[in-house]
Amino acid sequence: MFSDISTLTIAVVFVAINGLTMLAWAAAQGYKMKPTAFAFLVGAVGNLLTGSVTPISGQSSILTVSHFMKNVNERVAALLLAVIVMVPLGITGSVTRIADFAGQPVLWGMMAGVGLMVMGISFDMLGQARRTGTIAFVSALATHAAFVIFPATPNPHALVYVIAVSVTLATVDFAFIQKDPVTGERGRRVNLLKMAQDAGYEGDMEQNENPRFWTKEYWADFKIMKPKFTIKAIYFALAFICLNIGTNIAFGNITAGFTSPAGEPPAIAQNMDHLTVINSLADIPSVIFGGAPVGAIISATAASPWPVMAGILMMLLCALLLLLGLMTKAVRYVPVQAIAGFLFIIGFFSTFVPQLRNVFLMNGGSPSAQDTVQAATAMGITALTKNPFLGLVAGILVRYIGHWFFPFL
Fold it and tell me: Which contacts (CB < 8 Å, 24+ apart) does range 225-231 have?
């Protein structure tokens, strides 16, 4: 029992730290941190009511898209427009119907493409900060080997230990051992507001770190943002919609898969429509105050003894840290690259390899040429475009249109 509780605690704390690194990137794009707490609170309540195993947090693919919107008011408009479309899709069960319509080979190919996409992000992080990234990679691979490869019976909670060890070692080296390139002193810091301004973002991006909620200064961050509806906002809203559909299906399935040993069906299935409604509603109280958007994540909380509870506790912890103003202080000490090794383990060992195995084991190990091409197309398009929804569409097109051009399949 004590072992289960300690594993649960580790999963909650370090997946929160994983989210913290993504929120650091969000803060560097000018998003405000305190209002983002509302998104986590909505997510926690949503998962509690529905039993959803996939938590929501800062997500690299959504933040990658929003990175190209420099005007924060246009960004608010795009995110709110996306919510207006996504909530009805979830309520009517349309996301599950899209997944069912796509078929298993396309879904497996899309998720394999997500694995490649996540691996690509991990390698990018390695290139951005070689020392921090190398420590994260080496420690993650060593921990994975210690808990999965070498033991006769792989530890079902291995992902929890991978993120704990790799993020801790990389962060400790960054915050206490490395020398600041400007001052020459040990320990490095990140100035998020300066990063946002240097990147050319426009609008109100000031972060108030006052943790005393009974003071007027604390509430300075809670000013309603005025949406700026433009053609560009509509274009990015469509991108957010497509991205959310694809990531909810892919990340939800992958995270649910962590609830069982590799190769076995998920112990807790993920309802894609519930996930869509939860993450869409969570965006509303966050983005209207300039907070960051959230999305489904590939989460090690699902590998803990109590997967649903772990996800809820993780979101509540993030909300508390954000509301107390501690997140904006903490992200200065946690480099984004600290999760590079963990992302590689998730991308390659936990996502890419298992999904390819599913494809090649179809029909008793003899998948049809059409199934193989569908999966390969979905995988390739997902990885190239960094958009799982486009991979999904490409795989479906191969099945329903491709046979007219390639009848031999």
Answer: 225/72, 225/73, 225/76, 225/287, 225/288, 225/289, 225/290, 226/73, 226/76, 227/73, 227/76, 227/77, 227/80, 228/71, 228/73, 228/74, 228/76, 228/77, 229/77, 229/81, 230/74, 230/77
Tell me the C-alpha distance between 89 and 95, whole Å.
6
Q: Which two tokens stand for residue 45?
A: 């309540």
Give dist(CA 318, CA 103) in Å, integer: 35
290 CA to centre of own chain: 20
Let me know how many helices (H) and strands (E) the chain has, helices first: 19, 2
CA 244 to CA 222: how far, in whole Å? 26
Among 8, 62, 23, CA closest to 334: 23
Separation CA 208–CA 235 (nearest Å): 31
User: Quick check: 275 and 308 in contact, CB under 8 A?
Assistant: no
CA dist 310 and 124 (Å) reads: 29
Q: How far apart are CA 20 and CA 349, in angstroms?
A: 23
- What's 296's DSSP letter? E
* pLDDT tens sequence across 108-167: 998 899 889 889 888 988 888 899 999 999 999 999 999 988 887 788 788 888 988 998
Closest by CA position to 13, among listed 160, 119, 136: 160
Question: Which H helix or E strand runs over 200?
Answer: none
In angstroms, the CA 329 to CA 202 distance is 22
Measured in whole angstroms, how far is the alpha carbon of residue 101 from the centre of its chain? 25
- Tell me the C-alpha distance between 167 and 335, whole Å: 9
State the residue for tokens 């704390």: 13
DSSP states of 75-130: HHHHHHHHHHHHHHHHHTTHHHHHHHHH-HHHHHHHHHHHHHHHHHHHHHHHHHSH
CA distance 220 to 56: 26
- Look at residues 80, 73, 293, 71 and name the one whose alpha carbon lies nearest to residue 196: 71
Predicted structure pTM score: 0.81
What digits encode the pLDDT tens for the residues 162-186?
A: 988 998 999 899 888 887 766 667 7
Residue 46 identity (one-letter amino acid) = G
Rounded to whole angstroms, the Cα distance separating 25 from 161 reads 24
